């Protein structure tokens, strides 16, 4: 260990072990501007810059493409079209060959990349790209999900149906029945760091790609596919991303492939960083949904039969739409037991950018359908929606089976809701709000408490595996590498904390290094909230292998039983002797003990059979609930969130500060999705909301005025996850359904709470005003 | 066409020949002067990631032409800490977990430093949120950001008190 760092060998606990709120590992670098993102890396001499030429038609045949002027423009070194892709012109993550790197012959959405210019500077490349002359012959198109259904568009992948019981009989039998529909908007990720890739050619067929991606192994695979070289020739590295949120799970493939193709053709480094407007136009977003429901219920509000169809705007290709629409169905029950149920997905092909993963991965769109139904029943019966929720919760004899035939075994939603109801003073506030509304002609208030249950694990079972590489050096310092990627969620910090705890060394002894396909192969995307669950377990597995070797060595060398060898904070006890960790490691090195290990983990218990719609896709569930209170101006439709209270379950938190930050951030982002963030395509199929000027992302001033966020500190994962923690990235994203519903209540007050306003999302002021007008007209 | 400007960045004088008069201050910092701490989020004045101080005032450097900066004094995120000693706003951002991915952080911090200097927010969280609303944080770390700005503001106010009458104050306000 160097002089500047001396771990305390007499400490009672390690510094930065599990369950402590320590800052993000890059904290100092972030606040001093020293954290390096790809665009901040020093460019190797001779680096060229790529820029994309985009289609200006939603669906058309390309009748001619004249790029002569582009090629002749100043500084231009190369112009690529689909035909120049040396391997296969496809980056379909689903392996369906439906997503070209560059479109050939036909374009399927407005903004689809058709060529790529490489020039000395980004500015010259951008200027040159404007000189292309492309002629099109228009073909019929539909950009909206309902229009696509009407036009008879295909599904982009096989739909899923989940069934239990006999829904038709259940509906026929039920004393009450309601039918309705709901539209739920999409969402742009707007990761603050846009997409970027830098490819550096190596010898033979080798290439190194730095990419802002959540899935380095897929980038590796796709670059190899596009170059026509094996995966072993492609090395992909990611130190950190400036946000991902799912938008960098598959969407980086195109940029990485193009940078790599150009770099290999020209034998110089090539960097591509699309302008923000282009990034927003050419990368996929959250799927918008159209939900149809037909529900039977009894006079107490108990749901007896639920028949739901979830149609999604998938865009021109499959991308991840299959698993996204599947996950929508997996969450169309939220916390509620349906006796007879049928849930069907319709992944619709539309002439828009191919939609992709976004925090929650379809789950939020499914869950919101369930919550709309609860709301409708409540208004029909003249009850508080919370009462209807409680009566439908999973739990009790024969009421624990989900529509996909997994039994809910770890249900804690009752306790969460009860505690939150109490701590937020929900009942008294609701009464006060109803009283307030009676005497308030213009401003109306609303309050809502909504729950979340979210299934953790990739539904593609094979994705639930991870690797890690741990080295211990002679001075006692450690090198940690794992397959996950850091995008701000604090994954590296949490994995290092788990490793520090396992070895009983201070956090500062561990160096976390950039994710690298050459160190840990065949990784899964850092997605599905599973980053820590998977990678921390793999890191701990590596640590245990090394520890086992160390214990064997010490037991033999000092002739003591293995049980007497204990890893204590920054030291190791061997019988009645104590060595500093560094001393002990050096002894092991001298005795030729291998001090490096590759760790591995695969999630136990899970299985899923899509064909029968049965299995246990989820290892466990994470739970949470929120109460939101809003004020709505019924003359303008504008509103503000006055207060939000959250109680959220992260099991036994590995790092309460990071987890709380995830919950707060997810709430803000989810609130944006449901309130102000509206994607708008014009009748030509062009996305008009391609910059934050027109696409409204929540600001500091949009945050709830009062914002109380608590972790359920009593919760422990009943499954053997990393130190009994639970995943946190996605589940809290659905808490702000309470905001949408509180707005809905404020609007419902106009009709004396007898009509459900049926607010679609996002509930922009315009939509709120229209709902107000609807209710006024009905009254 | 070439144009020469002279400007001070983080206390260091730079003479720069601009070969293109349309270069933005942001690109000058990031691409010419090896100061990539200032981030590019949108390049069109809508996200705040590129916030720097020009003569003490916060601006979006992606909207400012480098050519108009002749004689200016510029502070970027790289110029806040004194050696290993963090600026109080930087320390407060760590203390209050005011970031996740960190990409907006340099802009948020520069904006906060500017805001505290402007002295318009005082100790009012509403005002802080309003006056920090030119800086998008997509990770949604607004809770921590607001707390950090409030705390750093309070500290700055405490430190300023014993020094009333300091001739420097007049200069800062100018
Ligand atoms: S980069 Fe300047 S405001 Fe976004
Ligand atoms: S910390 Fe990620 S955008 Fe603010």
UniProtKB/TrEMBL annotation, chain A:
<keyword id="KW-0479">Metal-binding</keyword>
<dbReference type="GO" id="GO:0005506">
    <property type="term" value="F:iron ion binding"/>
</dbReference>
<dbReference type="InterPro" id="IPR008274">
    <property type="entry name" value="AldOxase/xan_DH_MoCoBD1"/>
</dbReference>
<keyword id="KW-0408">Iron</keyword>
<keyword id="KW-0001">2Fe-2S</keyword>
<dbReference type="Pfam" id="PF01315">
    <property type="entry name" value="Ald_Xan_dh_C"/>
</dbReference>
<keyword id="KW-0500">Molybdenum</keyword>
<dbReference type="GO" id="GO:0051537">
    <property type="term" value="F:2 iron, 2 sulfur cluster binding"/>
</dbReference>
<dbReference type="InterPro" id="IPR016208">
    <property type="entry name" value="Ald_Oxase/xanthine_DH-like"/>
</dbReference>
<dbReference type="GO" id="GO:0030151">
    <property type="term" value="F:molybdenum ion binding"/>
</dbReference>
<dbReference type="InterPro" id="IPR037165">
    <property type="entry name" value="AldOxase/xan_DH_Mopterin-bd_sf"/>
</dbReference>
<keyword id="KW-0560">Oxidoreductase</keyword>
<dbReference type="InterPro" id="IPR036856">
    <property type="entry name" value="Ald_Oxase/Xan_DH_a/b_sf"/>
</dbReference>
<keyword id="KW-0411">Iron-sulfur</keyword>
<dbReference type="InterPro" id="IPR000674">
    <property type="entry name" value="Ald_Oxase/Xan_DH_a/b"/>
</dbReference>
<dbReference type="Pfam" id="PF02738">
    <property type="entry name" value="MoCoBD_1"/>
</dbReference>
<feature type="domain" description="Aldehyde oxidase/xanthine dehydrogenase a/b hammerhead">
    <location>
        <begin position="32"/>
        <end position="140"/>
    </location>
</feature>
<dbReference type="GO" id="GO:0004854">
    <property type="term" value="F:xanthine dehydrogenase activity"/>
</dbReference>
<protein>
    <submittedName>
        <fullName>Xanthine dehydrogenase molybdopterin binding subunit</fullName>
        <ecNumber>1.17.1.4</ecNumber>
    </submittedName>
</protein>
<dbReference type="InterPro" id="IPR046867">
    <property type="entry name" value="AldOxase/xan_DH_MoCoBD2"/>
</dbReference>
<comment type="similarity">
    <text>Belongs to the xanthine dehydrogenase family.</text>
</comment>
<dbReference type="InterPro" id="IPR014309">
    <property type="entry name" value="Xanthine_DH_Mopterin-bd_su"/>
</dbReference>
TrEMBL record, chain B:
<dbReference type="GO" id="GO:0051537">
    <property type="term" value="F:2 iron, 2 sulfur cluster binding"/>
</dbReference>
<dbReference type="Pfam" id="PF01799">
    <property type="entry name" value="Fer2_2"/>
</dbReference>
<dbReference type="InterPro" id="IPR006058">
    <property type="entry name" value="2Fe2S_fd_BS"/>
</dbReference>
<keyword id="KW-0411">Iron-sulfur</keyword>
<keyword id="KW-0001">2Fe-2S</keyword>
<dbReference type="Pfam" id="PF00111">
    <property type="entry name" value="Fer2"/>
</dbReference>
<protein>
    <submittedName>
        <fullName>(2Fe-2S)-binding protein</fullName>
    </submittedName>
</protein>
<dbReference type="InterPro" id="IPR052914">
    <property type="entry name" value="Aldehyde_Oxdr_Iron-Sulfur"/>
</dbReference>
<dbReference type="InterPro" id="IPR002888">
    <property type="entry name" value="2Fe-2S-bd"/>
</dbReference>
<dbReference type="GO" id="GO:0016903">
    <property type="term" value="F:oxidoreductase activity, acting on the aldehyde or oxo group of donors"/>
</dbReference>
<dbReference type="GO" id="GO:0046872">
    <property type="term" value="F:metal ion binding"/>
</dbReference>
<dbReference type="InterPro" id="IPR012675">
    <property type="entry name" value="Beta-grasp_dom_sf"/>
</dbReference>
<dbReference type="InterPro" id="IPR036884">
    <property type="entry name" value="2Fe-2S-bd_dom_sf"/>
</dbReference>
<keyword id="KW-0560">Oxidoreductase</keyword>
<dbReference type="InterPro" id="IPR001041">
    <property type="entry name" value="2Fe-2S_ferredoxin-type"/>
</dbReference>
<feature type="domain" description="2Fe-2S ferredoxin-type">
    <location>
        <begin position="3"/>
        <end position="80"/>
    </location>
</feature>
<dbReference type="InterPro" id="IPR036010">
    <property type="entry name" value="2Fe-2S_ferredoxin-like_sf"/>
</dbReference>
<keyword id="KW-0408">Iron</keyword>
<keyword id="KW-0479">Metal-binding</keyword>
């Amino acid at each position: 260990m160097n002089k500047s760092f001396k771990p305390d060998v007499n400490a009672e606990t390690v510094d930065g072990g599990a369950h402590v709120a320590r800052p993000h590992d890059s904290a100092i670098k972030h606040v001093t501007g020293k954290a390096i993102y790809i665009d901040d890396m020093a460019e190797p001499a001779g680096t060229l810059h790529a820029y994309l030429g985009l289609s200006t038609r939603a669906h058309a045949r390309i009748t001619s493409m004249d790029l002569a002027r582009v090629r002749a423009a100043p500084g231009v070194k190369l112009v690529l079209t689909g035909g120049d892709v040396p391997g296969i012109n496809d980056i379909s993550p689903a392996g369906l060959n439906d997503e070209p790197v560059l479109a050939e012959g036909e374009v399927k959405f407005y903004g689809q990349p058709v060529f790529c210019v490489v020039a000395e500077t980004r500015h010259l490349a951008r200027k040159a790209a404007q000189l292309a002359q492309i002629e099109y012959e228009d073909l019929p198109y539909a950009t909206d999900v309902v229009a696509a259904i009407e036009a008879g568009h295909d599904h982009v992948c096989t739909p899923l149906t989940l069934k239990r019981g006999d829904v038709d009989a259940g509906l026929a039998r039920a004393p009450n029945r309601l039918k309705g529909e709901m539209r739920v908007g999409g969402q742009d990720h707007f990761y603050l760091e846009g997409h970027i890739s830098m490819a550096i050619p190596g010898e033979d067929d080798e290439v190194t790609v730095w990419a802002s991606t959540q899935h380095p192994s897929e980038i590796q695979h796709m670059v190899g596919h596009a170059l026509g070289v094996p995966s072993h020739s492609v090395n992909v590295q990611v130190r950190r991303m400036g946000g991902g949120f799912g938008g960098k799970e598959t969407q980086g493939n195109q940029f990485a492939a193009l940078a790599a193709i150009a770099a290999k053709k020209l034998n110089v480094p090539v960097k591509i960083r699309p302008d923000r407007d282009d990034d927003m136009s050419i990368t996929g977003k959250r799927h918008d949904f159209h939900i149809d429901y037909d529900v039977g219920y009894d006079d107490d509000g108990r749901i007896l039969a639920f028949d739901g169809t979830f149609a999604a705007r998938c865009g021109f290709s499959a991308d991840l739409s299959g698993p996204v629409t599947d996950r929508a169905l997996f969450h169309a029950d939220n916390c509620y037991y349906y006796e007879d149920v049928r849930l069907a997905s319709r992944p619709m092909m539309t002439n828009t950018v191919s939609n992709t993963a976004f925090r929650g991965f379809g789950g939020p769109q499914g869950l919101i359908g369930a919550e709309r139904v609860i709301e409708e029943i409540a208004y029909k019966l003249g009850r508080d929606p919370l009462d209807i929720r409680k009566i439908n919760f999973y739990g009790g004899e024969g009421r624990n089976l989900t529509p996909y035939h997994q039994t809910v075994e770890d249900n804690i939603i009752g306790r969460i809701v009860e505690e939150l109801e109490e701590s937020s003073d929900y009942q008294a506030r609701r009464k006060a709000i109803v009283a307030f509304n009676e005497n308030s002609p213009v401003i109306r208030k609303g309050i809502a408490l909504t729950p979340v249950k979210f299934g953790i694990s990739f539904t593609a079972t094979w994705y639930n595996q991870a690797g890690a590489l741990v080295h211990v050096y002679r001075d006692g310092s450690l090198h940690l590498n794992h397959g996950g990627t850091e995008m701000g969620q604090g994954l590296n910090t949490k994995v290092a904390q788990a490793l520090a705890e396992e070895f009983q060394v201070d956090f500062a002894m561990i160096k976390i290094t950039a994710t690298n396909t050459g160190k840990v192969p065949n990784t899964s995307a850092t997605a599905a909230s599973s980053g820590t669950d998977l990678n921390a377990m793999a890191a701990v597995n590596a640590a245990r292998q090394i520890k086992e070797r160390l214990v064997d060595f010490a037991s033999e060398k000092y002739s003591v039983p293995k049980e007497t060898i204990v890893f204590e904070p920054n030291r190791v006890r061997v019988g009645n002797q104590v060595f500093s960790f560094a001393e002990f490691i050096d002894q092991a090195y001298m005795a030729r003990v291998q001090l490096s290990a590759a760790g591995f983990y695969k999630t136990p218990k899970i299985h899923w059979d899509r064909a029968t719609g049965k299995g246990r896709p989820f290892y466990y569930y994470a739970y949470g609930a929120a109460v939101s209170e809003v004020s709505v101006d019924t003359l303008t439709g504008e509103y503000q969130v006055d207060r939000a209270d959250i109680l959220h379950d992260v099991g036994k938190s590995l790092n309460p500060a990071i987890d709380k930050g995830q919950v707060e951030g997810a709430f803000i982002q989810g609130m944006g999705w449901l309130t102000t963030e509206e994607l708008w395509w014009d009748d030509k199929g062009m996305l008009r909301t391609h910059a934050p000027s027109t696409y409204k992302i929540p600001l500091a001033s949009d945050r709830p005025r009062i914002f109380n966020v608590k972790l359920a500190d009593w919760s422990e994962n009943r499954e053997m996850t990393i130190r009994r923690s639970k995943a946190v990235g996605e589940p809290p994203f659905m808490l702000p359904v309470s905001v949408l519903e509180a707005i809905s209540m404020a609007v419902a007050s106009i009709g004396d709470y007898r009509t459900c306003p049926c607010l679609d999302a996002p509930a922009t002021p315009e939509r709120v005003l229209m709902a107000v007008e609807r209710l006024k007209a009905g009254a | 066409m070439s144009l020469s400007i002279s400007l001070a960045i983080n206390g260091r004088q730079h003479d720069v020949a601009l070969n293109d008069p349309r270069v933005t201050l942001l690109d000058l910092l990031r691409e010419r002067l090896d100061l990539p701490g200032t981030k590019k989020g949108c390049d069109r004045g809508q996200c705040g990631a590129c916030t720097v101080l020009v003569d003490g005032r916060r601006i979006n450097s992606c909207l400012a032409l480098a050519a108009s900066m002749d004689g200016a004094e510029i502070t970027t995120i790289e110029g806040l800490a004194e050696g290993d000693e963090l600026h109080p706003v930087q320390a407060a951002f760590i203390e209050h977990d005011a970031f996740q991915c960190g990409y907006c952080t340099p802009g948020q911090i520069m904006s906060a430093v500017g805001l505290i200097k402007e002295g318009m927010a005082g100790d009012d969280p509403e005002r802080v949120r309003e006056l920090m609303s030119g800086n998008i944080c997509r990770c949604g770390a607004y809770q921590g950001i607001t707390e950090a700005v409030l705390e750093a503001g309070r500290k700055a106010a405490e430190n300023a008190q014993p020094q009333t009458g300091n001739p420097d104050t007049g200069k800062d306000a100018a």
